[in-house]
Design brief:
Layout lengths: L8 E5 L4 H12 L3 E6 L2 H15 L3 E5 L5 H13 L6 E4 L15 H29 L3 E5 L12 H20 L6 E7 L6 H5 L4 H7 L8 H13 L8 E4 L4 E3 L2 E2 L10
Parallel strand pairs: 1-2, 1-4, 2-3, 4-5, 5-6, 6-7
Antiparallel strand pairs: 8-9
Bound molecules: NADP nicotinamide-adenine-dinucleotide phosphate.
């Protein structure tokens, strides 16, 4: 397949782990230069060193919490002044907290999810898009979720945050009609990453049980799809790609083998 990513500049939020880190590696392997951000700077430093050594691309890193609106705006303004604006933005930073019935939900966890998954994505998109519009070029790729397609018990506010991403993906596409800017969403089912450990607040045993007895998606599987979406010719806009592990057909139909696992 033609590689259209060589020499492109790709900004990825939440690049210190999981899908974001896998996207960084996949884009670097395609010859793209990277603007990587997350809160855990030490991890970004290690990633930068390894990607630059392995792929001879340029990797810039930034300690950035996407919930910090002023921080996001300052970062993007600096990129503009330094003529380092990205061609492609992967809005990946996100998390889930808890799996509780709504009436027992922890409000502080809800705020984290909405502030990160929705408002963080809004801040970054709002800061970047005017530059893309004035150049009439660019591509935003949101990492949504099948949680934005089908609600599951205890998912309530996480589901709502990903339904919001889906609505925003559609809304941004409508508002950008007539431009050459593309907006896409890549929406995975179960992916084995640090996601469940974060959801269950460090309870590793419970997190590992989520991925037991079947083959989940890997962060690399998702990154391959993100690369495919980004690499499509400019006249092709993949609005929304849903990917599940073969063992999972929807949030309720998961084919597990081996000893029974406690239902989540
Ligand atoms: N795993 C799944 O099953 C799954 C399925 C569908 C969709 N997703 C979505 O995929 C995305 C990535 O999740 P993952 O599975 O790769 O989880 P992960 O392994 O826990 O990685 C999450 C990343 O997001 C970053 N992040 C979290 N809060 C942030 C903040 N406030 N500011 C900046 N960065 C932040 C983390 O970096 P720092 O902690 O260093 O900031 C980390 O790099 C999320 O949007 C998630 O909702 C995951």
């Amino acid at each position: 397949m033609t590689n259209r990513l060589q020499g492109r500049r790709v900004l990825i939020t939440g690049a210190s782990a999981g899908i974001g880190r896998a996207c960084a590696r996949t884009f670097a392997a395609s010859g793209a230069d990277l603007l990587l951000s997350a809160r855990r700077f030490g991890r970004l430093e290690a990633l930068r060193r390894s990607l630059e050594a392995e792929f001879q691309v340029h990797v810039a890193i930034e300690r950035l919490d996407v919930r910090d609106r002023a921080g996001v705006e300052t970062y993007v303004s600096r990129l503009a002044v330094e003529n380092r604006l990205p061609d492609i933005v992967v809005n990946n930073a996100g998390l889930s907290r808890d799996l509780l019935p709504f009436h027992e939900g922890k409000v502080e966890g809800w705020e984290e999810m909405i502030d990160t998954n929705v408002k963080g994505l809004l801040y970054m998109s709002r800061a970047i898009l005017p530059h893309m519009v004035s150049r009439d070029s660019g591509h935003l790729i949101h990492i949504g979720s099948t949680a934005g397609e089908t609600v599951y018990p205890g998912g309530n506010v996480y589901n709502a945050s990903k339904f919001a991403v889906r609505a925003l993906n559609e809304g941004m596409n409508l508002d950008l009609a007539g431009t050459r800017i593309r907006v896409s969403s890549v929406d995975p089912g179960l992916v084995e990453s640090e996601f469940s450990e974060v959801r269950f607040r460090g309870d590793r045993e419970r997190a590992e049980a989520v991925y037991r007895g079947y083959t989940p998606l890997s962060p690399d599987d998702v990154a391959e799809v993100v690369r495919y979406v980004a690499n499509a010719p400019e006249h092709v806009n993949l609005h929304r790609v849903i990917l599940y592990p073969t063992d999972q057909r929807n949030p309720y139909v998961l084919h597990r083998t081996g000893p029974p696992v406690d239902p989540e």
